[in-house]
Design a protein that fits this description.
mainly alpha; two-stranded parallel ribbon; 2 strands
Length: 60
């Protein structure tokens, strides 16, 4: 799934926020977190994109 496809999929689900898992460490990714930021910005969805730094804790 490309970043544009992921952003479209998230928009269809209509969540409050999206936090990708392993956006910078998974070897099979073709695009990095910056591509997802761009896809998110281009669609201006109603959900927040949350990309914590590698190793950061996430309080849900």
């Amino acid at each position: 799934m490309s970043c544009a496809q992921a952003a479209d999929f998230a928009a269809r689900l209509a969540p409050k926020a999206v936090m990708p898992v392993h956006p910078s460490t998974y070897a099979l990714y073709q695009e990095g977190p910056e591509a997802l930021r761009a896809a998110h910005a281009a669609t201006a969805p109603g959900w927040k994109l949350w990309l914590p730094s590698e190793g950061a804790r996430a309080a849900l």
